[in-house]
């Protein structure tokens, strides 16, 4: 049985923007994530979940492993378990994307930060 610790309505402000949980169910969670202009999330990976991101506003640069992908409205990317990834806002307006997480364990503790502009990665 999957462990999902997120609840609908959970939200958090981060140095790069904000996330909020839109829905959860058996083995999945759906978040709306807003990335401020010029901001970038940590380069990270997850041991217990995959993610699928769909851009709904703005212009983003996504790192997936060794790839760099420039994405805009309606474009999407799949991020497998254990794959290093990040998103950066390369435009003048907020990037908004929908993140669907799925896996056996869905919570904020399954974030392994590899690099972080805001000092949250291990030294």
Automatic annotation (TrEMBL):
CDD domains attached to this UniProt entry: cupin_PMI_typeII_C
Transmembrane regions listed in the UniProt entry: none
GO MF terms held by the record: isomerase activity; mannose-1-phosphate guanylyltransferase (GTP) activity
SUPFAM superfamilies, per database record: RmlC-like cupins
Protein's UniProt keywords contain Isomerase: yes
Keyword entries, A-Z: Isomerase, Nucleotidyltransferase, Transferase
Gene3D superfamilies: Jelly Rolls (2.60.120.10)
GO biological process: GDP-mannose biosynthetic process; polysaccharide metabolic process
Domain Mannose-6-phosphate isomerase type II C-terminal: 13-116
InterPro entries: Man6P_isomerase-2_C, Mannose-6P_isomerase_type2, RmlC-like_jellyroll, RmlC_Cupin_sf
Name used for this protein in its record: Mannose-1-phosphate guanylyltransferase/mannose-1-phosphate guanylyltransferase / mannose-6-phosphate isomerase
């Amino acid at each position: 049985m999957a462990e999902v610790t997120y609840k609908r309505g959970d939200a958090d402000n981060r140095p790069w923007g904000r996330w909020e949980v839109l829905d959860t169910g058996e083995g999945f969670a759906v978040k709306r994530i807003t990335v401020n202009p010029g901001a970038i999330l940590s380069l990270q990976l997850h041991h217990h979940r995959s993610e699928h991101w769909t851009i709904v506003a703005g212009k983003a640069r996504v790192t997936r492993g060794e790839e760099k992908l420039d994405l805009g409205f309606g474009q999407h990317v799949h991020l497998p378990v254990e794959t290093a990834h990040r998103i950066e806002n390369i435009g003048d307006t907020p990037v908004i994307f929908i993140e669907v997480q799925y896996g056996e364990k869905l919570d904020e503790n399954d974030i392994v930060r590899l690099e972080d502009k805001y000092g949250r990665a291990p030294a």
